Amino acid sequence: MVYRGRPSTGCKNCRERKIKCDERLEGCVKCAERCFPCPGYDRTVDAFFHDETARVQAKAKKSNAKAIAARDIRDARHSKAASLQIAVRASPGMELTESLVDQGISFFMHHYSMGIDQPPVHSASYHKHLSTDGFHPLVATSMTAVGIAGVANLYMDPILKQEATRWYLQAIKMANAAISSPKDVKADRTLIAVNILSTFEATSNDQSLAGWSNHVDGAASLVKIRGMDQFSTPAGHRMYMHTVGLLSMNCMSKGIPLPQYVHDLNNEVMNYFSTEDPRNVFFFLQIKAIDLRAQIMNGLPFALADIIESALELDAIAIGFFKDKGPEWDYDVVLCDDQPGVFEHFYHIYSSIASAQTWNLVRYNRIYLHDIIRNSILVGFSSSPPTLAGTKYHEQLEESTRTLYKLQSDIIASMPQFLHDISPVSPSKTNYSTYSYTPDQHDPGNTDFLWGSPSSFYTSPPTSSAGYSTPSSSSSGGQKSFHENFRGQSGLVAEPPVHNELVTDRLPIVRISGGYSTVWAVYVAGAMPTALPS
Q1: Which tens digit of pLDDT belongs to each residue from 276-289?
Q2: What are the backbone angles phi and psi of residue 437, rounded to the nearest 5°?
Q3: CA distance 385 to 121
């Protein structure tokens, strides 16, 4: 409302004629002279102000329209600039560039995928969605968002990050539409798209993991809706393991057990996966360990002796993980004296990254279990009166402490191969400094063979003439990848790409874990309560 000064006190007719009004109570003279009925005199406060609402609204709409048009022009210019990358010059003045969409999908397939699960070439399903490289638009949009976000993180480019966010929001809209459909909500493409979007939150949101947690909870809800029918396709098996693996980490961070429907579905999963693969056995063991930890954290009625027994039962399963599983799951222990890049006086050499990472996954879960055992015994000893009595608890406390130190040392000993500080090839087996470790060769609780002096195992450190070779050339410069310093690549792909009539969608085989699992193992080893400052 705009103030417009002191208004005239005359009648309306006189004001419109712009003449002086005598303001008589029974009616002004000017109106009487013209035989007009006098309308009277306005004495309200509203006359002091003028309503400008309509004019201001019209002005704001016009200004907003100009701002939107300017923003669209600016975004189009930025999008065009973001898509122009350095290209290989085939000839002077000529450049070959990929579209931003192709770059995003290529980055995703190289860094986040291990292959493609697709229908037969002769089927009609194979030739659908040609405009999105054969992927369903929902999956392609999600892959593009994660791929562009990865490029943006690599080059720290805010324009590319803005473009990745735009693709991410578009994928969210498409995912919501698919979830609202009774048919699409159970499709493999919907579940894998939600899992891919959780990767976007995990790699692009540096403020909070709440978005990642929400996506994981949403994917878990889809698993529940899909029910037993999801195991009818190879992709359904794989994505179930992927989703429950993410849900396990989410539940562990919240200190809650896994939902009951996961346990019910796991009974069905056991019919499809071989227990000969230690990774499958670890999948079920980790769930049991998370449930035990959640029961303790939530203060459920649980005697200390029962906690200890439950943890020991799970640890006994973990000890036998790699027994009689084949030489690909064994590793070599190499003893050395003050070698650069080696923390203690020994290090491990594994045949494949799958073997090394699976060993470390088991080790840090055993750290959780023995930490629970150790803390329970200490609480029982310190209570008044003591709730735990007997020499077996003293012996168990000592054994758990030794086991914690050994597990910590083994995780640290596996790191030089990941970091390219050693050769992926073991020194000559004729040298006493090297021996193969098999699960049934040593008692896991016995660490005497590691804590002794290195000189008790060999007379002199291994040299290049004894069979020791330098680390791979890739470690001397440039980027280093964890998986490049291993002799074999077996186990990187859990199963080959599937081509059969059951597959109706082209789907990427997404990595369940990568280098972060290795970093997490080191973190757990360094943060354990018994860790020393040195």
Answers
A1: 788 888 888 999 99
A2: -100, 125
A3: 73
Contact yes or no for 484/99 (Cβ under 8 A): no
pTM of the predicted protein model: 0.69
Task: State yes or no: cis peptide before 385, omega within 30 of 0.
Answer: yes
pLDDT in tens, 433-453: 555 666 655 444 444 433 333
With a CB cutoff of 8 Å and minimum separation 6, the contacts of 321 are 278, 281, 282, 285, 362, 439
Contact, 368 vs 311, CB < 8 A?
no
pLDDT 10s digits, 161-210: 999 999 999 999 999 999 999 999 999 999 999 999 999 998 888 888 89
Spatial separation of the C-alpha atoms in residues 240 and 269, rounded to whole Å: 9
Q: How far is CA 60 from CA 50, 53, 520, in A?
A: 18, 11, 53
Q: Write out the DSSP string of 373-425.
A: HHHHHHHHHHSSS-S--SHHHHHHHHHHHHHHHHHHHHHHHHHHHHTTSS-SS
- Cα 368 to Cα 378: distance, rounded to the nearest angstrom: 15
Could you read off the pLDDT of 202-245 as tens digits, one per residue?
A: 888 888 889 999 999 999 999 999 999 888 887 888 899 899 98
